[in-house]
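[#protein-structures] MJ: dropping Peroxidase here for a structure pass
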Amino acid sequence: MAILTPPCVLMLFVPSVMVLISSLRGFSVGELEVGFYSTSCPNAEEIVRWVVAEAANSDSAIPAALLRLHYHDCIVRGCDGSILIRDPDDASLEKKSSNHAGVRGFDVIERAKARLEAECEGVVSCADIVALAARDAVFLSRGPYYDVPTGRRDGRVSNVSDASHMPDIRESVAVLKAKFAKKGLSEKDLVLLSAAHTIGTTACFFLQDRLYNFFEGGGSDPSINPHFLPELKLRCPAGGDINVRLPLDPGSETVFDMHILRNIRSGLGVIESDAKLYADASTRAIIDSYLGSLSPVPSFDRDFAESMVRMGMLDVHTGSHGEIRRVCSRFN
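AK: finished. structure tokens for Peroxidase:
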């Protein structure tokens, strides 16, 4: 099968461009391995890359959606594709959780899977496709390119109750830290993975309490920059359409960069959990470290890539555990 790169994204996938974690073919991380499919399905990563680029060409919101999909998959039962299982008549499936409201990109994963099955039947897992698609989504948004260790197998469980304890945008930083720590992720990971909000949008639904009912008697979150508050209220008026969408990183919502950290520092964080990161001493120090308060300044792109790889290893199935689904939306 010949693999071509869509003309609009040709230069984005030149391998020597923006590679922050050098290619380590065969390098193992736990039971996962960079280049796991190099023999069994040598075009696997290129096929996923093509499908993601193709989708992004027709829908500019797809990169952010795929990045979010990977997080929502990993943070529940681990990176096992449990969120992908779908059945409109089965309310017990993980995807039905209100904590997954608005998550999309499933069709992109299914298209990649179909092409992979045509090339290498029963070889590449859906969980790996999700991880690879997130990496390619970041790079398409001018973010870092990084090697993704692969070899995950797909889980055989998808339960709505498993998603009930996900991190929530209304929770305190202390609670968010604890939930991340339970997954083996650090405070630094919390900041870096939150910074994935540098691309994408959110709905006014998630801002209603912050804008109008932050206190018991009403009122707005005082941490919102007073010059920014009227803009947010104009976009999301009280009693207005809660489905209206606005950028999570105003001024840089289509480019993957650390602009969101500057916005958070300046009181321009849109959702509550992002804004709270600057009110906590330890997460504030991490944000400030990327904005020049330390010398040398750490590499945001490299650190983000490392956090993504770390998250991508959460509770993975490998070896004889799990399965390789033929269709990502249902168990074999």
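MJ: nice. Confidence is low (pLDDT under 50) at residues 1-27.
AK: one more thing. Strands lie at 28-29, 32-33, 201-203, 245-247.
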